[in-house]
Amino acid sequence: EKVKSNNIDVKIPESELEAEEKGAEEERPKESDSNILDVSSYYPREKHISIQRHLADLEKLADLREDERKLCPLCPEEKFKACYSHKLHRHLQNLHWRVSVEFEGYRMCICHLSCRPVKPNVVGDQTLPKMGAHYHCIICSATIGRRTDMIGHINRHVNKGETEPRFITVRAPKSYEVVKESATDVQVLPNHFTPQKTDSYFNPKMKLNRQLIFCALAVLAGERRPIECLDAFGATGIMGLQWAKHLRSSVKVTINDCNENSVAMIKENCHLNKMKVKLNIKEEDSDENVGNGEENSDAIEVTKMDANVIMHLRSFDFIHLDPFGTSVNYLDSAFRNVRNLGIVSLTSTDISSLYAKAQHVTQRHYGCNIVRTEYYRELAARTVIAAVTRAAARCNKGIEVLLAVALEHFVLVVVRVLRGPTPADDSARKIRYLIHCQWCEERVFQKEGNMIEENPYQQLPCDCHGSMPGRTAVLLGPLWSGSLFNTGFLRRMLLEAVQYGLDEAQPLLKTIICESECTTLKPFYTHSPGDENKQEESGVYIRTPNISTESYLVHGKRKSEEVLRGTAKRQRAEHSTKHPPFYYNVHRHSIKGMNMPKLNKFLNYLSEAGYRVSRTHFDPMGVRTNAPLVQFKTILMKYSTPTYVTQAEGAVHLPGDIQMGEEVPAAAAIKVEEADLADDKSGVSAAMFTQPYPTHCAAD
C-alpha cells in the first residue's frame, strides 16, 4: 500500500500498516495530556519552519530587507504587525530564538501560528481568537505548550532510544578541530570545553596532569614490561594515545568510554596518529579499516562499556581514573583486579567539595568532615587518599602513596598497590582524625588508640583553649596521616620527564622532590638514556644488572614469583622520607605594619634555627616545616622590619626578658610602645606600629 505524506510516496506493507494502526489505537489514551494535542504519523515528513539550526536560517524565512516591511514567519499578523528588518531581527532573536529548546544541533523555536487548536475567549457576544504559543517536536509532530513540558517530552524520547528526527533532511557534517599535544594529534569538536554539551571533552589546562601520569607510567614500564594499562574514561583518547606513541612495545593500552560517539572519535584519532586499533570479536566480522599508516605491531584496544564493568572483568597493571567529578564510585572496581605492585592513579575535579566550598558534599562522597583552612589543598589530597585507602583495604590490599598533587583545577593521587592483609592493616592505621585550632590554625593528628582522652585540647601545641572563651578547636577527618610522596619514585619521574622533554612537569617535580625531603637544596642529576644499568635513588646512583626485555616474560609460577619478589625488595628499599605534615602560609601569620623578609631568606632563617624547612607546591607562599607555630611566628617577627621606617636589614631587637622561642606578651608590647612614645617626642611616633595599616609584603 502507498501512503502519501507531504508529496512523498512511501511503500509500506499491509501487515506493518495494520500493526501500526493497532499500536496507535493503544497509545491514544496515553497521549491524553492537555499540552499534547495532535500526533502525526511516523512517516517521513518535512520539518516545521520553527525548527532551525541557526538564527540566520530563521531570518532567511522572513527575507529581511532594509527597504521593506516584513511579517514574522512564526507569528500571525494580528499578533505582530509587519515592520522593518532591524525590529524584526530583535523580535526573532528575543522572542523566538532565546526561548527555544535545543536537541541534536537543532533549535525548536516557539511558534505562535494557528497550528494548535485552542478554545476561543468569549467576551459578551464577541468571540476573540486566542493565540496559543507552542513548540513542535523534532522527533514526532506533537505540539506542546510549555517549554518545560517540551524538555520532558524530548527526554522521554531519549529514554526510549528515539533520537533520530523523523523528517527528511541532510545533516550538516560536524566540523572538527585538530589539537596537538606532546606530538599527538586529536580531533575535537568546537565546543570541547563544555563536557555537558559535547562527547569529546578536551581540557588544555589538564596538560600538566597528563604529563605527570605519563611519567608515572613510564617509571612503571621501566620496572617490568610489557604492562597492561587502562584509561577508563577516554573521551578523545589523548592520554592513551600518548602512552602508546611514546612507550610503544612497553605497554598494552586499553582506552575505554561508555559513550558511542566518544568511542568512534577515539578510533578516528588512532587512525590520525597512524596507530592500529585492536578489533573485538564482534567487529572482526565486519570489514573495518584499522589504520593504514606505518607498521606497528602493538595495537590500541578501544572498548565501549562502563568503567566498573571493564575493571571487574579484566586485570591491569596501571589504571587511571579521570571521571567528570568525583572518582569514589569507581575505587572498589579499580582495586578488585589490579595486579600486585601495580599503580592506580586518579584525578578528582570536584574541587568545590574537596576545597571545603561544599562541605555537605564532602561528607556525602568521602565521609569526611573538613573546613576551610590555610592548608586546604593538602587537606583535600589527604581526604582523597583516605577514601582510596579504605577502598583498597576492603579488597585486602594496602597502598603506598607515590605522589599527591593538588592544584587549581584538579587533585591527582598516584598510589602503588601492595597485596595482602598485612599491608592493608598498616595502611588503615594511618587514617586518623585531625585536631585543628580555629584561632591560630595550629593542627595536630590525634594520637593512636581507642581510649577517650579527658582533655583532647592538650594535644595541641597552642594554649588558645586556656586564653580564649568557648570551644576553640574542631575535629577534622578521617584523613590520611602518612607521607604524601616517595622521593625515589619522584626522582625517576623527573628523569623520564627530562628524557621525553616534558617541560611543564619538570619544575613541579623538582619542587615536589625538595618538599618530600623537606629541604631547600636542589641536587638534581640526570644521566643519559643509554646508561640503562644505573638507577638513581635520592641522588645516589645504584648499579643494577642490565636486564633485557625478555627476562620479564618468564613462564612458570615459581619464576614469576621470583621476579615479583625481587621487584618488591627493590621497592622496599625505595621507602619514602617522612616529611612534616601540612604547611604554614606566611601571609596568614604576618604582622601588621611590618615588612616580611624575602621568602627564601626566611627559609634560611628557619633552617639556621635548626628546623627542617622547604617550600610547597600546594601554596606559592606556603612553608613546610617541623617548627611549631609559636617558633614560626617568633622568627617571622624577629626578621621583619617596620613598613614606614627606613632601617638596615637585620633583626628587630626584642626586649631582654623575651627570649627566642617565646611569644611576645601583649602587655610587654604596650609597655615598649609607651616607653618609645615618651622618649621620642620629636621623632617618629612609635604608636604608628600599632595602627592597622595594610600589610605590604616583600616576600617573593
Automatic annotation (TrEMBL):
Q: Which UniProt keywords apply?
A: Isopeptide bond, Metal-binding, Methyltransferase, Nucleus, Phosphoprotein, RNA-binding, S-adenosyl-L-methionine, Transferase, tRNA processing, tRNA-binding, Ubl conjugation, Zinc, Zinc-finger
Q: Does the keyword Transit peptide apply?
A: no
Its principal location?
nucleus
Instruction: Spell out the Gene3D superfamilies in the cross-references.
Output: N2,N2-dimethylguanosine tRNA methyltransferase, C-terminal domain, Vaccinia Virus protein VP39
Instruction: Please give the Gene Ontology molecular function terms for this protein.
Output: tRNA (guanine) methyltransferase activity; tRNA binding; zinc ion binding
Enzymatic reactions: guanosine(27) in tRNA(Tyr) + 2 S-adenosyl-L-methionine = N(2)-dimethylguanosine(27) in tRNA(Tyr) + 2 S-adenosyl-L-homocysteine + 2 H(+)
User: Could you say which residues form the signal peptide?
Assistant: none
The GO cellular component terms are: nucleolus
Segments for region (Disordered): 1-37
PROSITE patterns given in the database record:
SAM_MT_TRM1, ZINC_FINGER_C2H2_1
An example Gene Ontology biological process: tRNA N2-guanine methylation
Q: Which InterPro entries match?
A: SAM-dependent_MTases_sf (IPR029063), Trm1 (IPR002905), tRNA_met_Trm1_C (IPR042296), Znf_C2H2_type (IPR013087)
Sequence ranges of Basic and acidic residues compositional bias: 20-33
Q: Which residues form the C2H2-type domain?
A: 137-157
Its annotated compartments are: Nucleus, Nucleolus
Source species, domain of life: Eukaryota
Give the family from UniProt.
Answer: Belongs to the class I-like SAM-binding methyltransferase superfamily. Trm1 family.
* Protein name, entry field: tRNA (guanine(27)-N(2))-dimethyltransferase
Species source reads Leucopsar rothschildi
Upper lineage: Eukaryota, Metazoa, Chordata, Craniata, Vertebrata
